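Database export, one record per block. Field names are fixed; values are copied verbatim from the stored entry.
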Amino acid sequence: MSQQAKSSMKEIYRILDANFNRVREALRVAEDCGRFALNDPAITAMAKNLRSDLKEILTAMPVSEFISSRDTPGDIGTEISSPTEPKRDGLSDVVTAACKRLTEALRTIEEYSKFIAPAQTIRIERMRYDAYTLEQRLHSRLLIGRRWAAVRLYALITRKLCSGSMRETARAAIAGGADAIQLREKDASDAELLAIAAELRELTDEVGKLLIVNDRPDIAAIVGADGVHLGQRDLPMAEARRLLRPGAIIGRSTHEINQAKAAVNEGADYIAVGPMFETTTKDVWPIAGPILLKQALDEIPLPIVAIGGINAQNVSQITASGAKCVAVSSAICGAKDPKAAAKAIRQQLPD
């Protein structure tokens, strides 16, 4: 090999060395966010698997040549930085920067590896696509509060009402327009509940929808759910938050305006108001009706969810009060066609 060719290869080695290091560092930032900030086992596992993939790819690379070609003192890039580089406004900014660095570095590795390890380029390309998925999952978790504001149809899945499996009922509800799923299962053992929650977490991750677990912040925390819904007799909100990752959504069921105001003071992310109509799935409370709903919409500065006995025939009474979001259980779970039932309700809700 000529001296010129050797020099050219040395520069390629330097490029690859720098970018493999960027990938490794960015994955560590992503993994630490998933593990420590979000307490999310799925994101943590994705980042770990990507690091494992990176290690395998490196076994096919001339790593010793990378290290010997490294020239940190002579790298002009160490003296150059953008004005925004030292500034991060929060966890989302940190993760965004790391994920962009990750995917950009993988693209560079993919291109320059064609010179020295062309057989690895398909694996690197696959890794880059997986990195895009990791970025999407991280941002979905970090932005769940903003995502809740867009929820219109909130499907409450209860096993005894479902004609099929809970997973398939939830899938049908989502296909019909549900933006969020609540696992509302009071009769299952802890082991059963955990298994069901894990299934629904997998489904909602797959389709990019929110998962809320009723009553059980411990189960929500274990499966990495987006939040928990608490009744009047459940844990105080502060105690529930101790079990959940930062940014998790907590809703509270309320049946009178003073309860709704108390939930605001507790730090709820949304307030469920009801029951709107007669229902067999809620605890026995006086029918709150659209009058309380209108009062809550006027006085409570949080997203309001109308709940209790809502179906395609009466949902127009709810929207007439100004509500944007409804929680529905029996009318979807108990329907012969849950997808069609969800669609009939969703079409009457605002965008």
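Remark 1: Residues 3-37 form the longest helix (35 residues).
Remark 2: The radius of gyration is 25 Å.
End of record.
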